[in-house]
Each structure stands twice: as C-alpha cells, then as structure tokens.
Amino acid sequence: MSLGKAARSLLTPARGVLRSSAAALNRSYAAVAEARAVLETELDSIRAAGTWKAERIITSKQGPQISVDGSHGSILNFCANNYLGLSSHPEVVQAGIDALKLYGAGLSSVRFICGTQDLHKNLEQKLAEFHEREDCILYASCFDANAGLFEVLLGPEDAVLSDELNHASIIDGIRLCKAKRMRYKHMDLSDLEKQLKEAQSSRMRLVVTDGVFSMDGDVAPLQGICDLAEQYGAMVFIDECHATGFLGPRGRGTDELLGVMNRVQIVNSTLGKALGGAAGGYTVGPKPLIDLLRQRSRPYLFSNSLPPPVVGCATRAVELLLASNEIAQSMTNKTMRFRNKMTQAGFTISGSAHPICPVMLGDARLASLMADEMLKLGIYVIGFSYPVVPKGKARIRVQISAAHTDEDIDRCVDAFIQTGRKHGVVS
C-alpha cells in the first residue's frame, strides 16, 4: 500500500469521529438555545403581568436610614426585617469583629467533622435559655431548619397537620417527610379539629403553624391550637421568624404573647431578622429531638457551620435581649401609630398589632408603581405580588422597626397619602 493510501485509510475514521462530535455539539447548542427560549418566554410573561421583582442596590449598612443606588440623600427604610434595629447596633457589630479576629472567617467544615467551636455551643445554649427549651441546634438558615426537621421527626405512620398559608420553607420541609400530610384552612380551628379527628389512627400527630404569617401580619390562634392538640394527643410546632425578639412581654415570641410557652413543643426561628439580621436559623425543643437532628438532619449534616462573625453578632443580640426587654416593648406604640394613621387616611391595613403592616392594594402593577414613587419621596418600600402572595392580593408590606422615630413614621404615612391620592387609592 502506498503512503498516500495508508494516510487516507487512517484519516477516514477520524473524519467520522469529527463529524459525529460536530453533530453532538450542534445538538447540545440546540438544546441550550431551546432552553433559553423557554426561559425568556417565562421571563417575558412575568414582566407582562407586572410582577417582575427588580433588586434595588443599597450602598450603606442596613438601618432605618439607608443609601440607595440612583437615589439622592438618605432614604427611610420601611421594609427590612430589622425589627429591633440590631443589624447595625454597635455592640452587635463589634461582637462580629471580635469573633472574626479570634475565630477566623469560617470553619471550612460541617459541624460533626471539625466545624464546632465553643462559640457555636455558647449560642445554642443562650437560644435554648431565651426560649426556655431544653436544647438548640443551629442551621445555616431557618429554611434549612424547616427542611431538616419533619423528615427526621415523622415517619409513614405519623400525621402532620399544616396551616394552608404556612411559609414556603415549611411546605417544602413537609414534602420531604413520609408522614400523612393534611392541610387545614387558614387559622380555622374548626377545620383543624376535623383534621385531628381524622388523624387519630396515626402514631404521632404534629400541628404545624407560623406563629406570625409574614405576608399578612396575622398571629396564629395558639391558645386554641394548643387546646385542640392536647384534646387529640398532638404536638405543636411553630415557626417564629417574624416574632422572635419582639413579641411578648420579654420578646420571646408568639407563644409568650399568648401564654402557651409550656404548651408548644418545638420552635424554629431565625437569626436573620430581629437577632442581628445576618444569617442562620435554629430549632429549640426537647433534647432527644435535638440529639436526633444532629445525627440525621441533612441540612445540618451537609452544610458548613455558621461563620464565626455571624455567630458572634447573633450571640450579642441574644445577650442584649436576655438582659433587658426595653427594646422589645418599644415596638407596640410605634406599630399602632403607623396602623392608626394609615387607617384614618383611608388605607386598608391587613393583620393586627404586628410590625408587619401590609397596605392592601390588590393590583400588582399599582403596588409596584406606588413603591417606585415612594422611593422618589425618600421612602423605601417594596410591592409584593404573585407568586409571593395570592393573585389579586398585591400589597406594599411596611415593616416598623424599633429604630424608627415618630417623625420617620409620620413621614412614611404622608408619602403614602400623597401617592395614594395620585392613584385614587384614598381621597
């Protein structure tokens, strides 16, 4: 065979391979292009519905007054979960700096390998003390705490009874467990009792509710829930993300507010709102439950430990609340000042006596437009619409902080009245 023929015989299969690779690459490009088209169509539908959620850029620390990219001067912030104003409290910030210097930026490990420091155990002990429970376990977020609880606690022979408007993290966490899943109508004790009767054949029954429902600011009827739970042999779980630190005489939460601390078995909450606002969540409850979560809770076992600066900040926030209830008690008057003035102006405010004050508008475009116009008046608020809230129930959710002054609140109300009159919401 000539050298030329030999070369051609070698090149022929190579060309086949190249053609095959090119065809596969073209199919890959086509798949990506098709996926992009599907995604763009979905994005266009969100924009067309007026429910697009743009992210404003803050160029300052969190607080009652902030700086916003594209806006001039100081802006009053009325939509943060910074209920007690601790996100930028000097003692909380300094505690984070001290922890950073002493313990480093992070652990590069999960808790059970080499990720547990004494400051983690100290914070868990203080949170258990704060909630008056036996023990505590930390998570990267309360979403993780909710994702990690139900799968461990409940099996196929158990039943979980959940309020239909519970937070998305509770819903997702319940989906992971194999228990019989039952939903009762929102804060409807009659329907809950009906569901409890149907669940009597189950080994364990767990009633699950938000302590405060974050979109409407309404408080769960915990006294009635606990009565029914005891009557029908069930345990009670509450998510206290929008209550810990400021509801109740000492800021312990909804269960303290309603006098049922010793009747609620399990509490999940967050470090990312009133308790410093950085990150992190936790479960407090019976020690055997916490011990089992450390062994089997997947978000705990497979997520890095909370960074030391976050733990340091949260620890100091809890210490401040353990030492005094003054900050927590300051919330009530400020909340009612806003609610009363807005109601007198003709606005509809959902919920009752909670710092979450949803200004109900109904139309998603209107909520977004009014929020943008409020920013021009120096007030930072955000319009909430589907899928965060049900269709037709768009609103601007105002959140009062202990750091707001009466003058701040009055200025916010005046801005609402100005924009509300412009769009025919109030006369």
Description:
Its cofactor is pyridoxal 5'-phosphate. Its EC number is 2.3.1.29. It comes from Salarias fasciatus (Jewelled blenny). One of its GO terms (molecular function) is pyridoxal phosphate binding. The chain is α/β, with parallel strands linked by helices. It folds into 2 domains: 65-86 and 325-423, Aspartate Aminotransferase, domain 1; 90-323, Aspartate Aminotransferase, domain 2 (3-Layer(aba) Sandwich). Helix content is 47%, strand content 15%. The chain contains 16 helices and 15 strands. The chain has a 7-stranded mixed beta sheet, with helices on both faces. The longest helix is centred in the first third of the chain and has 46 residues, at 3-48. It is globular, with a radius of gyration of 26 Å.
For this structure, the CATH topology of the largest domain is Aspartate Aminotransferase, domain 2
Number of strands: 15
**Beta fraction:** 5-15%
CATH architecture of the largest domain: 3-Layer(aba) Sandwich
- Provide the helix percentage: 40-55%
